[in-house]
Amino acid sequence: xxxxxxxEEELRRTEAIKRDxxxxxxxxxxxxxxxxxxxxxxxWRCLGMALITLTVILLIYL
Length: 62
Hints:
Blueprint: H1 2-61
């Protein structure tokens, strides 16, 4: 009786650790995707500002 209780507890603990590792991997993947999107957004924002600046310069001087 005592052995099966111990085995059940170990199994529960092992499953919890697996679940935790899976969640950590999912969070890490999501964080990497967010970082990638932030870099893309920053790049597009810089390109947009450059385009607006060029347009303004052309409008002023033409």
